[in-house]
Structures are given as C-alpha cells and as structure tokens.
## 1
Amino acid sequence: MSTKLRAAIIGSTGYGGVELIRLLLMHPNVAITSVISSSSAGAPIADGYPHLNQILTDKLDAVDVDLIREKADVVFLATPHGVATELAPKLYDAGLKVIDISGDFRLKSGEVYEAWYKHKPADAAYVEKAVYGLAEVFGEEVKGASFISNPGCYPTATLLGLAPLAASGWIDLKSIIADAKSGVSGAGRGLSLLVHYAEINENFLAYKVNKHQHTPEIEQVLGRLAGEDVVMTFTTHLVPMTRGILSTIYVNLKETRSEDDIRELYRSYYEGRPFVRIRDKGKYPATKEVWGSNYCDIGMSLDPRTGRLTIISVIDNVVKGAAGQAVQNLNLMMGWDEATGLAFTPVYP
Amino acid sequence: MSTKLRAAIIGSTGYGGVELIRLLLMHPNVAITSVISSSSAGAPIADGYPHLNQILTDKLDAVDVDLIREKADVVFLATPHGVATELAPKLYDAGLKVIDISGDFRLKSGEVYEAWYKHKPADAAYVEKAVYGLAEVFGEEVKGASFISNPGCYPTATLLGLAPLAASGWIDLKSIIADAKSGVSGAGRGLSLLVHYAEINENFLAYKVNKHQHTPEIEQVLGRLAGEDVVMTFTTHLVPMTRGILSTIYVNLKETRSEDDIRELYRSYYEGRPFVRIRDKGKYPATKEVWGSNYCDIGMSLDPRTGRLTIISVIDNVVKGAAGQAVQNLNLMMGWDEATGLAFTPVYP
Amino acid sequence: MSTKLRAAIIGSTGYGGVELIRLLLMHPNVAITSVISSSSAGAPIADGYPHLNQILTDKLDAVDVDLIREKADVVFLATPHGVATELAPKLYDAGLKVIDISGDFRLKSGEVYEAWYKHKPADAAYVEKAVYGLAEVFGEEVKGASFISNPGCYPTATLLGLAPLAASGWIDLKSIIADAKSGVSGAGRGLSLLVHYAEINENFLAYKVNKHQHTPEIEQVLGRLAGEDVVMTFTTHLVPMTRGILSTIYVNLKETRSEDDIRELYRSYYEGRPFVRIRDKGKYPATKEVWGSNYCDIGMSLDPRTGRLTIISVIDNVVKGAAGQAVQNLNLMMGWDEATGLAFTPVYP
Amino acid sequence: MSTKLRAAIIGSTGYGGVELIRLLLMHPNVAITSVISSSSAGAPIADGYPHLNQILTDKLDAVDVDLIREKADVVFLATPHGVATELAPKLYDAGLKVIDISGDFRLKSGEVYEAWYKHKPADAAYVEKAVYGLAEVFGEEVKGASFISNPGCYPTATLLGLAPLAASGWIDLKSIIADAKSGVSGAGRGLSLLVHYAEINENFLAYKVNKHQHTPEIEQVLGRLAGEDVVMTFTTHLVPMTRGILSTIYVNLKETRSEDDIRELYRSYYEGRPFVRIRDKGKYPATKEVWGSNYCDIGMSLDPRTGRLTIISVIDNVVKGAAGQAVQNLNLMMGWDEATGLAFTPVYP
C-alpha cells in the first residue's frame, strides 16, 4: 500500500465522487486515503451509500487543506460549481496534484464564465495553469501536468464527435448544431422536481434551451482546434434513464468529401487511443453499449441529398463524462498507461 | 345506439387499433361495431388485451369487405405498411368512409413511396383521392372528405412545429433539421430485439439515420406549404419510455425577426384550434404534458448569437400521432366539433 | 353549468389533487369551482402543471372555509396527513359535503392512529361521523352520507382482494400476509431521496417493513368483516414505475375449498359492481391492465401442495387508490350511478 | 497467458454468457479461449453485442466437444434448459471442468425435474456427480469438484436469505413463503410479448403463480439443510427494470427468539464470506445496492405483533444469480480465493 499513490476525493457524496470511489478501488496504483464531504463529515460514507458497506468503511473527512496535504498526493474535486473556485488554488499551492471535475476552471475567459455560470470566476492565474483534460485531444498537455480541469459530460461526448473535423478545416464552422440527450444522473444527487421520479419517468424534455453552460466550453475547444472563433447551437435534453449521453451532431461540409474519407479521418485521429471506437458504415452506437465504461463510441452518416453530415457520439456521463476521464487524466499525469484501472467492459444489458 | 355512427377497426390488435378502441369508447357519436384482425379472428379481443375485460367483449372479425360494409359506416385501417395498399380502395369503393392510419396513401409520388418504403405503391388514382389529414393544417380539406390518409407520428409533431414558418416565407428552407425522439410504442407490438425490454431500457439510440420513411412525408408537406421543393435532415431516436414524441427543430431565418413575432405567427396560425398549445417565452413542453391526450404543445427559442431558431414540439405518438388525430379527422369529416370525444386532460403524472 | 354540483379541491397541487381535476373535468354532473393550495395560492394552477394549460386556467385559492362554502357544494381534501384533522370538521360544520382522501379519519381508534401516524388524532366525534368509503364493500353506508373517509391506496387493493374471504369465515385469520408493491407516485410530489430518479430507477426495495401506517387500516376493516380482531403481516415495496399497486396476498384456508368455489365466492360478492373484475383460472392481472382507470382486477391460485391461497389484486393507486374512488364515493353519496364519469378504459400500452 | 486457465463459454450470446465474458475478462487467472454459440457460429460476437467491439474480437465457435477439449480447461454452459442435459456429460467425460448455469442438473430427482421443467431429465449418474454450487452454503463441496450445477437466480437470493434459519431448527418449516421479484433480464434475450418494452415498462405482474420451476430447487436445498422435507409457497413477479432480484421471505418462528439473536445467527453463519452482507436493525437492502456485483445483501424484521419474521434478500440476478456465482465456484474449484476477479464495487447509481 505504501507504494500506491494516495488519493483524496472532495465531494465524495455526490454521484461523481462515488463513481470515483468505484473506479479508484479497482485501480492497481492508487489508494483512497480520504473521502471528504463538507455536509456529512464524521459519518461513515456507507451510511449514505449502502452499496459501499464492507467495501469502504471510512468516515467522511471535513474539507481541511492541511489534512488533505498530509493524507494525499492527488486530490479530486467532485464539487458543485463555485466550490473549486476558491479551493483548488489552495490545494494546488499546498503541492497537491489537483483534478477538478467541476466547471470552475474550464473557461479561459472569466467574463464568459460569469455570463454562463452566474458565478464569480476563479483567479485568472490559476485558470491559466489548469490543463483542459480532454484526454484524446489534449493528452500530451496532460502528461506531467499538476492541475487538470476535467471536461464536462456534454462537451466530452460532443467534442470527441467533432474534434477530427474541427481540426481538419473540412466543415462550415457556422453550421454546427449539437442536439444532446442525457440520462438523469447528470443532474446529480441534489433534489429537484425536474428529476423527481414521477415527473421524469415516461417523459422526455428539453431544458436550458440556448442557455446551457457547456455551450461556451464546446465553442472554446472547437475554436482552438479550428484556429478561429466558433459559435454553435447546442441543445440539451433529459432522457428517462440514469446514465448515458448521446450527442447528435450536424455539420455542413465546405467541400465534397466521402463518408469513407471522413470515417478514415476519425480513425486516424484516434489511432492508438483505447477508449474511442469508430463504428463501421451504417452502424450507430447506443448509450447502453458504453454503459459503466470509459468508452466513447462514434458513428456517422453523410446524407447525399443534403450534403450534411450527422455524427452520433455516446458516452457514460458518469464515467467518460466525469470520473473515468478524471482517472484517465491521472494516468496520463503520472506517466502510466492511460487505460490503467479503466480497462473494463461495459455492463450489458 | 341506432343513431350512432358505426365504426370498424382493421388491425385492432396493434397499438394503434387498441388506442382507437379506447378513444371511440369515449366518443358520444360513435359505436364500435366490428373489431377486426387477420391474425386473431375468432378470439375475443380481451384475450390478447386483458385491460378490455368486461369493457369490450366482442370477438375479432376476419377481414371481409362485405361484412364490414354491412356492419359499419366508417372503417379505420390501423395496419402495417402495405396492407391498406390493396384494402383501402376496396373499402372505399364499397361506399365506406375510410381513414387509413398507415403510410400507404401519404406520399403522392409512387416512386418516392417505393424508394423509402420498399413496397409497391398504391394505385395512383386512390392516392389522389386520399386527403392528408393533418387536421390543424388541412382541416378544410378533411371536412366532407370520404378517404383520409392519417399523418405519421413523427410528421405530425414535426409539421405542426414547422407549418406556420414554412407557410410564412421567413426561413431558409435549406436549413431545416428535425431531431426527433420517440417512445417505444411507435415500433408497435411486433417483437424485435430493438424493443426487447432489457435492450432498450436504460438506453438511448438513433436509428434509420437519414433513412426514415417519414422524411419524404415531412418534405412533401413543407414543400406544399412553402410552394417549392424542400429537402431536409431528419433523425429519429428511441427513448426508453412507452409514449411520446419530441421533435427538436432547427431553422435559420432568412431575415431578422424577433422571437415574439414568431410566437405571434404561431398563435395566429393555430387560433381557434383546440389541440395546439403554444408555450410562453422561456417555456418548453415535455412529452408527459400531453401524455394520453390529443394535444400538440410547442415552445421556441431564438438564439441571438447564431440567428437560429429552435422549436420544440411534443405529442403523444399513439393519440395525436395516430388514433387521436384519426378521430379528430372523423369529427371533421362528419361536420362535428373537432374535439368531440377528445376533450380529455393529459394523464399526469 | 348552474345545475352542476360545485366541487372544491384542497391540495390541488399534489398528485391526488391533480388527478381529481382530471377526473372531475370528465364528469358530466360536476363543475370544479375552486382549486385550493395553501402553498401556491394566487398562482395559476397551470404554472406548476403545464399539462393543464388552456384546460384549467383558474388561479389557486387559499384555504378559506367561508370562501369554500360560498363557492362549492362538495370539498375534497387531498392533503398530507394531519391537515384534514383540523380542517375537515370545520368544512363539515359549514354544511359542505366532505370527502377526505388523507388518512386522518380512517382509523376509529385515536390511540391506534397516533401509534402508527405519529400525529395527534382527529376529534373522535368527527371520526365517528366519517364513513369509510371502500365503495364495493361499504357502498350502502356511503349512499346519502355527507362525510367520507376515502381508503388508502394499499388498503384498497388489499381489502378488495380479501373482503369476500374475510367475510366468509373460510380462512385462518392469523395466516394473512399481504406483500404489496407500489409505483412511485404513491410517495407524492414532495421531494425525497427515496424517489429521486437516479436512486429509484432500476431499483426495487422494501420500506417501512412492519411499520406502514396502512396496516391498522387493513386490519380494522378485516376485523369488521370477520367479526373478530385481525392482526396481519403487511409489507410495502417501491417499484420503478409511476402508477400501479399490486398486492400479493397469502392466506391459509380453514377447511378444504376448491379454487372454483373461492372464485365463485368473489364473483358473487362483487356482482353488479362495475369496477371489480375477477380473472379466470390461471390468469393473473398486471398493473398496466388497470392503468389510468378505476378498475381493481383480481386473480387467484390455490396451491394443492400447501393448501395456501395466493390472491393477486391490482389497482391504479392514483385512481382507484385515491381520486377515482373519491369520485365513485361522490357518485354514491349523490345517488348517481357509481360509474358516472369513471367509465373510461385503462390506457394501454 | 500460457499460465492462465483456459475457459470456453457455450451460450455466449445469451445474457448469462455475455456477463461471463465481462467477468472473465476482469479475472487475473483466466483467459477466454472460445466463445460458443450454436445459432451464430462463425460471426464475430461483437456483431450481436457491439459493446464488445475492440474488446473481444473473437468469432463464435460452433458447439464441438473435441474443439472445446482442445481449446479449454473449463467450460461454462449458459444455455437454455434442456441443452446441458445431453452436452454436459460429454464435456465432463472429455475431461473438462464443467460449470452448468442452466437448471438441468440441479434437481436430484428426475421425476421432479420432469414435472416442473416439462423436459426429459438428465442421466441420473451425472446428476449425482454434479455439485450444487451455492457457494456460501456448499462451498466445501465445490472445492476440488469438477462438475458444478450453478444455482438458479431466485433460489440464490431466497436460499441465502433462509439458509441459516433452515439449518437452525428455529422455524416452522410449513410456514415458509417467498415472494420474489425479478428484473426482466432474467427472461433472457429470447423475444416474447411478456418482456416487449411497451408491455412491461410501467407495469408490474406476477407470473407462473405456484408453477415456477425454481420452487423444487429451493425446497430441495431447504430440506437438505433442515433434515426433513420442505414444501413452501413461492411466487415470482416481474419488475420493470433490467437487473436485480429481491426476495421477501416470511417464516414463523417455532419458539421465541429475538431479532438480535437471529441477526447474530446470520452473521455467524456467513462469517468470513465476502459476498454476503447482513444489514443492521431497521435497514433493508435495495437491489440497486448490489447492481453489477456479486453481493447478496440481507435485512430482516421480526414483528412482535405476529411473531413472524420478514427477511429481505437481494442480488443482481445476472451476477450472483448466474455468471458471478459461476466464477466464484470456479475460484473455489481451483483453490483460489473465492473473490478472485469478483472484488468490484456495485455500480451506483
């Protein structure tokens, strides 16, 4: 145990935190040494999550930077927006490796952050230090970094579905529309009528139309890949299921390309990356096919009638869209194989 | 009872047929006089649908045009594609009022029908006679008609969400994308792995991407309303729920219009029609809000950043998308108030 | 309209209240004249329940006995336990017909009420006046009554499944076990982690084992029917669905009876009652077969190996288990046919 | 790889088979060397299960005893009832270790098998050889065995919930009732109307009342533990969810025991066994708390009013009720730690 990397998890009682626990318990190189919750400190974590009975018998620690520094080498922040703003810099300055799963350090512009999140932005100096951990796109930057801002769930599915094309110059950047659908766990464990069972079961709806805070995150990355500003349409919907995101992405091609060429572009872009799987022609992924795993599966169809390309990208929002990608980033930071502790099969059915 | 209109339902053992039974049993002016099934003739309908025990004790009749003519004044065809092709003309020629819920008489071009449905098209002379029963758009044509082709479920949601704009000349007709999501009942009662519970529960997927046979139906109507040919992108997804369709529609405006102007256009277009409800600014409908009812609820958002309009349109696919609209069309055909027998509240939750 | 009975609903913003609205809107003899909510008075009811847009445009009234007396002839209380305790007597004394859907007037013993509900019991004089409205069992008492205590959802399913046997003397009263399962709407619209979507979806659990407050209600009625005290085992479970209760009931027979004899006993007991349907030998009802309707369907199997009888009884908890039975009781109180406004078919699928 | 145990899976395209694949891929001591399907031989397994893309690229082998003997050391049969009857003896005689997940070798009496399964029973000589692999109860017999008959899903949940008491002599053996509820995956991947999504979603029902073939399996084991014949009531229900079984078990005590005594009996019986977790007083397990894992969680409540004990036992039917327990049995057969490859956390939420 002494040779394992010691990990602390702030926000252990949220869904992102508890999934980090599941994944890190399977990780051969990591030991969980502190599970932290500001709201339930002192109670055994299994009190609120009985599935952890006899598996993780620890009591929850309070948030205490000195204690974390003493107990851990790396700290994950799986906290609501606005908490890491203050906390992550302190942890970073204390010499800890920091992986922030919240949105607080993703947007390089404080102004944009404030406009979409309605929170005060983090200190720009720390925002600058934070590496955006979209592992298959910016993995080289993640290697050796000490402070990672983990991508949002919708951006992960949408950006992995768009990155090869955004970098290729083949598409009309003004034409991008992403119609995204998410399972209910994305809304977290906090109670709200929106995700009250009797309201969302046997129901499907759009929410935050043209207002979702993940919009500028996707635009920022697309802009970086394309080398020019991108403004896009992004819509989010809630699906009556617990896990899974599917993003249906529409783009117009600037010039004629065959579907085969585009598929080849994707396969080449993601070559050697274990967690992106490109479907063959005529095959489209379902969210269940990545359920519980770190995969992102992508299919596509070019319509000769319209010249428009439709891309389908799916992830498990709690794994690849949060805790799994965080562990993947940890692997890259530490110089380990990126699939360490993550090479498990989706749970089907 | 003798003064009631006598109705026969062919395909009574499918979901569309059994919903027609539910609705017609509540209709003050109609009596169900024959429930018909080619596969289960002779058996009581309640054997296969125990919820009808002591409510409808009839045995299923075989398909027999003479018998139908004798027993009924109006006949509904709730049959798989390809059945009405042969049967509807015979029923029509026998002097019955005919309402076909299948896709067999919707497309005016036999060539287009064959390309998308992979079936031989119906006799063009009868296709010509069939009035497309999108009640809020072509209601005037339905009045007094004897042969109705009832719209598809996806087209109903999508077209009601687009009709005012398609007729207005305000939008770029090349820009139309409809990203539609349906509950599983749309796939019918026929067994298939796609809708096997353990496969589609806790799952979300796209299917028939760029291949769905409802595409030309939507394009045909949009073209008729716009006065020029329309080609659009249409994507269908399966939601792990039984009933409901939500269509998220994206269009670019040709010139600057305010969201208020557009909402006013919709309210004006649907004025006096009881089953279309336009949501106020910032409000978007959920499928559950029309569950079990004949309503189509529509919300919209104009994004000033992109100039693109997003429209959200929801229906219950089994009611407004099939049996309910068929009854609404019957009401119009007969000169009754169009809400007769349909003025019930959605079931919530 | 002036000839219709005027109805007020207290607790209109709960699931029981909103279902009463749905049902009364379909009732030919009743007009809803006041929808009342202590928490949301002044707001249009459709703000919180958009499915009511353009259907019920009323604003919510505050709880005001004088106003109710002025506006209504009958008042329904669809309130949490403990509210009707004080309110129902005042409404009754004001000359209103009162139908209380809560548990406050069901238990004849204040001591028992307090032990199970952990609330102060209602005034014994009013408890005495309240007629227990299990319509198929005590319908004669309901006729002409002015104050009805509407049965609980679990008791309705369980008691209708047991009443003929309890009254027959055929069973060992010490042997009764009811293993009941309910959809999530039974927990109401109040937020709680138990019915948070991501917690209860894809989950099944038992709760309040040996502690559920409906236990003494069932025992009280069984005791009354049997003519001696009954103590039974009653277990409640939560099913990941919105509506429906299924109660699996086990009893030992005191002497040998054939399954046919027992089925005949049930059919005879419920003869002429439109809402109880007894299944044939080898057939068992599913909750979906009564979904959205006022039916209670019952099946049974006598095991020759053990001599034990298993009874399966299903209802829609929101209809027959609450609002529907309340309307049925109103019909009986008013001397109308008990199915008035309730003769609609279950929604399937 | 050469030092790993080589495993073949017959019936790889069923849910039990595909779950074995998931689990064995995580097992440090086992390599999957042949995935076998009589119906799909020659096709890549990922064609029918796209979640296995790039994870298991093998083509399906046909059923061929010689080939299996060549490629594998142990063979799992995850086949429908009636297949292993003929096949398992041949595999055993060929010198393979055999783990049969079907019901074909569970019942020691061929007559009882035929009465409940309506199939011809297996050769009694081989039935005799087959060790019943309820790991926490008969683990000592499993160690070193070569032919395991893996328990059924319902029996696993029910027997683990009853074994300590059955062996104790404390209960009235005539009083046992198990009211069991299962997710839909238990019905397998074969299409049927019962598990067609639109039929079983938002539905709950009992099936095979007093007829389920797992009844004699439970009785056989209880009888063996108790030292006398046991006849019990066993009811099965279908829950609208994919995975999970909850068995609610009722027994009468023969003499007065405290709930604490009984809980202590259970804790002592399962001491040192990693996969059975006994809940504290007043706590009851939910199926989601063992989802995707090999745990069986048990809670209990003794009702002082009736003297009856209620036991709640939950498992994941696909893991502990099938593939997981099969791997656990393999571990025991091989002399490995029984949790090898199975020590993962339930997936929550």
Note: The interface with chain D takes residues 15, 18, 21-22, 25-26, 49-55, 185, 201-202, 242-243, 274, 277, 279, 283, 285-286, 288-293, 297, 344-349 of chain A (CB under 8 Å).
## 2
Amino acid sequence: MKLAVFGAGAVGRSVVELAGEYGHTVTALADSSGAVVDSSGIDVAATLERKASDGTVGDGDPQTALESEYDVLVEATPTTLGDAQPGFGHAREAFARDRDVVLANKGPVAERYDELRALERESEGSLLFEATVGGAIPVLSTITDVGTENVTAVRGVLNGTANFVLSRMATEGLSYEHVLAEAQDLGVAEADPSFDVDGTDAALKCAILANVLFDGGYTLADADVSGIRDLPGSALELAAEDGWTIRLVGEVSPNGVSAAPRLIPENGTLAVSGTRNIVQFETQHAGQLNISGRGAGGDETATAVLADVSRLEREM
Amino acid sequence: MKLAVFGAGAVGRSVVELAGEYGHTVTALADSSGAVVDSSGIDVAATLERKASDGTVGDGDPQTALESEYDVLVEATPTTLGDAQPGFGHAREAFARDRDVVLANKGPVAERYDELRALERESEGSLLFEATVGGAIPVLSTITDVGTENVTAVRGVLNGTANFVLSRMATEGLSYEHVLAEAQDLGVAEADPSFDVDGTDAALKCAILANVLFDGGYTLADADVSGIRDLPGSALELAAEDGWTIRLVGEVSPNGVSAAPRLIPENGTLAVSGTRNIVQFETQHAGQLNISGRGAGGDETATAVLADVSRLEREM
C-alpha cells in the first residue's frame, strides 16, 4: 500500500522506517514544517536525516502531500483536544478523496468520532485506529474479534507515565515529586507531564473505547477524570499494609467512562509495573481476557499503525 | 454466512447456539451419529434437544452435510493424531468445493499443515483456525496483527487442566494424584487425562504455532514433550522456597518446539492459576505482549470460531 504519513514525531518516524518491512511504500511525509512527496517512494533515510539536521522533512507545502497519490493516510500529528486539528482536517481530506485513514492521533476519534464516521460513510475509504489505544497492544482488534456486542466492559492501565510514577512510589516509598523528576530524567515523563498525570491521556483512550463499544456519542467531556498529582505517598503505604496498591485505571462500561486512581490487589492482574499497560476485557461468552504490553513508544505504536494498514489491504 | 458444523461436542454445540448472535446461519450440523441439513437454517433448539435425548443430531448421512449448501465448514470433531481424520477429510472436501474452512480441531493443522495449505492454495476457500490455540485468547490474530516476521518467539501456559493441577499442588501442597482426582470430580480433567497431563495437547498447540510462525513443516513429532505426571510435590515445595513455581510451558522459537514443566517466577506473568491460559509473544518492534484468558470451554472456543467466520466475511 502507498502511505502518506502526517507527523514526523517518534511514531511518524517509526512508521516510515518500518513500512518497507511490512511491504508498504511511503509516498509522502509531511509535518507542520514541510513535506516531501514521491509517488515511487520517498528516500526515507535522507528525509529523516534532513528532519534531524534542519528540523524539516522537505521544502514542499504539506497540502501537496494531501493531494498526492496514496492509498492510506497515516495521521500521526500530535493529539489535540476540542476541534482535534490539524488531524481531523487531514482525515477529512483523505476521505473526500476516497482514501483510507489510519490514525495514531487520538484527537479525532476521542473528540469528533461521530463526525469522522459520517465522513467515512460518505467515502470509499475506511477508518482504523488501533494505535490510539494501548500502543502495541491489540485492543481494538480484540474487540472486533470477540464481537463488539459481546464485550460488556473494558478497564485497564492505559498510561505508562502515570503507571511508572505510581509503581515506583509504591515499591520505593518515594514521593510523587521525587519520582516524577526521576521519570523526567529518564524521558518517561515530559517536561509538562499534565496530559499523563492528570489522567487526560487515559481518559481520551477511554472515550475512544466507549465510542467503539457503544457506537459513538462520547468525547473527553463525558469522562470522569482525576489524576495522580495529589496522591500522597501515605495512601500507597496504607494500601500496601492490606495487600493493595493504587493504579490509574481507565474504565468503560454501561455505567460510564472514567479514569482515576483505584485500589487494586498488589499481585493482581491489573498491577503491572513500570511503563507497561494492561487492558482487561469482560466478555459475555469468552470470560475475561487480559492483554499487557508496551502502551507507548515509536516502534510499538508504529507496529499498530502498520497492522491497520495490513488489515485494510486484506479487507480490500 | 451459512455454516456447516461438524462435531456436536461442547464446541460444536456452542457454535450452533451462538452463531445467530454473530449474524450467521447454521445450515447443517453433523457428527458421527448423523446429520441435519436445512439450507434456510436448522432448528437449533430442536436439534440439540434431540442430540441430548437420543444421542444423534438427525437421521441424515453426515455426507449430505458435506455436500450441502454452505459458505464455511466449521470442523469441531475431536482432535486426532497422525492422519487427523475425520477432520482432515472434511476440510479437504470443503476446499474441493471452494468453501472456507474454520477449524476448532487441532489435528489437521498440527499434523498435516503443509497438505492442508496445499489444498487451500488450489481452492477458492480460505483456512482459519484461531480456536485451535488458547480457546478465547486471540493468539493467531495477534500474530497476524503484529506480523509473522515480527514475532520472534511464543511461549505460554496452553493447557488449563495441567495448569489447574500444578497451581493447586503448589498452593495447597497436595500430591499429583490427589489434585488430579479433584480435577476429575470438578470436570476439569477427563477420566483419561493423558492428553492434557502428558503435554500432548500443549505440544499440538506449539506445533500449530510453529507452522504459523515458520510457514509449515512441523508436526507433533517435532516437539520435545514431557508431562507433569511424575512431578513430585517436593519439587514445587523446593521451588517455592526461592520464590519460584512450576508450570507446563509450551515454547516455540527458532531453537525448537517444546512443552515441558519449567521453573518460573512465582509472581511472574506466566504464573497464571487455575484453568487460565497465558500466551507471551516476543516481538522485534513491539516488545513483549502477554494475553491471558480462558483457554478452553465450549462458549469460549466457539467465540474464537465465530471470530474467524466474521473475519472471512470481512475479507471476502
């Protein structure tokens, strides 16, 4: 398949680097700085080198990438809230041209799901977005496999940064501030960690899951969200005395959508440590399924993007 | 899709009961005792009632089911070794008629994989067999998602009966014989438990995984197999002293295929308890993925069968 990739951050770069291994060709790469387009395949190494040295992927106008020849638009620009731009607009243009759309960007499916599905219905193109929930973990394809109506609830640890902080606080008895600084040093937390530690990222993933399970109608505003910023170390100590620990758990069920710190059994399935994620599915006929793995990272998320591209190819 | 279901054991019965929920129609059900065929859909309730009371699904010759009108043949007769009959023959007849084949029966893909793929290549029909490994756990679809070449090894607890016995021995300090008798009372182990406790079932699943990962060439004979029958309770006690436990672990890697009791960390990911299964994937670009869930059971396995049927429908 020919891919036009939007976004040259960690995920976009990994997608263009790995696409060839999966038998696909990158015919365009664009970000806010510029674009490079070549219908026979861009020079991946040279383009990424230029991005690293000059800060731009190429001299082209990003619009030329949207108008170029491709089968699938891969949207990997940063997640934005509210209008979910520019990601939403890229997806809209691709659908208008009857192309498929694969999202790594959570914004369009968390904030404007119903509009996006309406655009998909009017298009020959299809929408997939496995990479938006749980990185390398096959969350959405498992829901498709088991059958949407057969999944009664989904919960899980969906943010690796928050989980790193909480599991270090629990095992080392350190304060939130101490562990956060450590996480920032290690590159696990960003300079402004709000998106992760306030629960926004986990809640966006839950809004996406709710849209998938209940056929749309959800945005971030529908989620009950609380973060881990004000969680005292003493809460973790108290929990540990009785064999419990605390994790930031996202949950989607007919009772609602939430992302908040929860008490869970210390050796239980949900108590993954470090930056790992875990997703737990309650099903009607297949019991409980648990999937854990790396929930973030360029190559991990790119693997989910390329799984979607391969799926589109098989279902063509 | 129209389904012709072969086998009226726990899995076959669940498939015919749940097919309607997934939007499919059962047009034939056959087992060694007879067959019922109705191109507009069999009367599921009446057929299963008759099977329960008279021991037969219907007066028809099973051959009439093979020759009937259907889109997908679902093979759920008991797994047999060596020639893998009658399952293999059913699949061959379906492919000769250009129909799709979905297996719950492990025999044909563990013992005669290369022949089956050759028949598939000559046919318009396609072969899927998610239900043969890990029941409700989406093992093969995860390999497809991640990309076969990207998966470097798979290991896991693949037999619920053996795992029930080992985890009870470890937690209760009971002998193998004691726990086995208990498992038989609970219906977790069969009267003749050899297939499970000798590692054969886990090894068949590993042979199937090896065929998928390495594009064929494997049978049960290629696996190093040892069971749990002679494992003394003292081995589990010794292991526990150092924080380890023992599980029957199946493993597939470029180094070979095996199913044998292994020492694993007591609180580690592989140490699932009771009849649960877990599958661990090592991948090149997506790190380690773990999926746990119910590895057996009629409804659980039927869910995997029906996921395959839906996949065939999407990819048509």
Note: The CA atoms of residues 39 and 50 of chain B lie 19 Å apart.
